[in-house]
Write a structure and sequence with these properties.
Layout (H helix, E strand, L loop, with lengths): L5 E8 L3 H12 L4 E4 L14 E3 H6 L9 E11 L5 E11 L1 H14 L3 E3 L3 E10 L2 E10 L5 E8 L6 H6 L7 E9 L7 E5 L9 E6 L5 E7 L5 H11 L7 E2 L13 E6 L8 E2 L2 E3 L15 H21 L4 H4 L1 H9 L3 H12 L3 H10 L8 H15 L8 H9 L9
Helix pairs in contact: 1-3, 1-6, 6-8, 9-12
The structure holds flavin-adenine dinucleotide (FAD).
Length: 411
């Protein structure tokens, strides 16, 4: 008896936000679509602060069901080291992220896609006919393998499995993210982002409010080994110390209380985001926002571009890299200039606590719509109060805040 082979037009690797969205859009375009997910359940363990802007939801035409929304929020409040607080008001949502990802997968199934859990991609072989590339034969752990697909969409997150298997890109630099679920947390509906280098080296801390007084309290930091220690110290030194900490609802009862998190790529979009029959999306492509490191909006949007490109290539009977070159053209035209913003972020993290606080005090109460004259006023105030900051590249640092806005895929 011959080996049983599963065949499809599009194989999506990973059922995070990128993979779920890619499957929805590929299936809605009439492509036979399979999603494989390494974990036995979609969305857990959660490795996300769980916030997404209203603009992202509108941009993607997502009709979010009530149960995936934990809380509607007004925007971000940035707290500087001396306690100065300035707002970036633009509405959004804190999600129950695992339910959001499960909902995306169910929408994909409704559109005709098939989802296979506990399936891990481990190897890929090129398929050719008369010297012409026609697809990938994918091998891994899980009963549906081998799976033959005309196009593979790699949505495997920071694991970047296809880059690794095919040696397409070097491993990205990463930053560590970690948080606890806390209770009875006071909130006025803003996400609190603390730029407090003492606890978060080249990163920041957050309090992301959820429903029923719950909140994610966490940090991202370049000091990967010290992440838990520094977060614990932050909690010990602040009002959070008095609050109750539990495991999140998706973790089994009876387990000792632990934080949850993961890593985030921070070296920017990969050099190679497509190849013969392959497109990388979301974190697997290095698409995260440079200042506050959100990635869901970019993952969801790149998924739409990859599905569109796959449809056109499959219809033309040509899934070669040349044909899929339309994909990087699409994302490059839309996504913000990562390396420019990164320069601002680097300048920001070169400032001392005192410099950061001076900068914070020069910002208006509402940073969202500063406009050209607003920015000029801030620069003038900075130059009057601390002229030496000019040489520390405080202007690009300041502009980095503008790029953390939703319209620049900041959250
Ligand atoms: C602590 C923390 C907080 C964050 N907070 C936010 C936030 O508030 N807002 C925001 O927008 N972003 C946030 N992010 C970033 C956000 O989580 C990611 O950018 C987003 O999840 C990327 O989506 P994705 O679909 O590309 O990848 P992922 O969500 O990582 O999904 C990848 C999936 O692929 C699966 N997979 C991996 N390898 C294989 C394989 N070989 N075979 C099969 N399946 C595989 C994984 O199990 C996973 O389910 C945060 C990240 C961290 C770590």
């Amino acid at each position: 008896m011959g080996e049983e082979v599963t065949r499809c037009d599009v194989l999506v690797i990973g059922a995070g936000p990128g993979g779920g969205a890619a499957a929805i859009h590929a299936a809605r375009r009439g492509l036979s679509t399979i999603v494989i997910e390494d974990h036995p359940e979609i969305g857990t363990p959660v490795h996300c602060g769980e916030c997404i802007s209203e603009l992202a939801v509108a941009n993607l035409e997502l009709d979010l069901p009530q149960d995936v929304i934990s809380l509607k929020v007004h925007g971000i409040r940035v707290l500087f080291p001396d306690g100065t607080a300035k707002k970036l008001t633009e509405p959004g949502f804190v999600l129950e992220k695992h339910l959001f990802e499960q909902w995306l997968a169910s929408e994909a199934e409704e559109a005709g896609a098939t989802v296979h859990l506990s399936h891990k991609l481990q190897a890929m072989e090129r398929m050719e006919e008369e010297g012409r590339f026609v697809g990938w034969r994918c091998i891994g752990k899980g009963e549906q393998f081998p799976i033959e697909a005309k196009v593979v969409i790699d949505a495997s997150g920071v694991a970047g499995v296809c880059s690794r298997l095919l040696k397409l890109n070097p491993r990205p630099e990463v930053i560590a993210g970690m948080q606890y679920e806390m209770h009875d947390v006071p909130t006025d509906g803003y996400l609190d982002f603390y730029i407090w280098p003492k606890y978060a080296k080249k990163g920041y801390l957050w309090m992301i409010p959820k429903c029923d007084g719950r909140a994610n309290v966490g940090l991202v930091t370049e000091d990967k080994k010290g992440a838990v220690r520094d977060l614990d110290q932050f909690i010990e030194d602040t009002e959070f110390k008095e609050l109750k900490m539990t495991n999140p609802p998706w973790r089994e009862d009876g387990k000792s209380v632990r934080g949850f998190g993961g890593t985030i790529p921070i070296s920017g979009p990969h050099e190679v985001t497509h190849a013969d029959g392959l497109m990388l999306i979301g974190d697997a492509a290095g698409f995260t926002s440079p200042l506050f490191e959100g990635g869901s909006h970019l993952a969801l949007k790149s998924a739409v571009y990859a599905a569109e490109t796959a449809e056109a290539a499959i219809a033309a009977g040509d899934v070669s890299a040349d044909r899929l070159a339309a994909y990087p053209v699409l994302w490059k035209a839309e996504f913000p200039p990562y390396h420019k913003i990164l320069r601002g972020k680097t300048a920001l993290y070169n400032l001392t606590d005192e410099d950061l606080s001076v900068m914070g005090r020069c910002f208006p109460e509402e940073m969202n719509e500063m406009g050209v004259s607003g920015k000029a006023k801030v620069i003038f105030r900075l130059m009057v109060r601390r002229p030496s900051l000019y040489f520390k590249r405080v202007v690009p640092a300041m502009l980095a805040f503008g790029y953390s806005r939703a319209k620049h895929y900041g959250w």
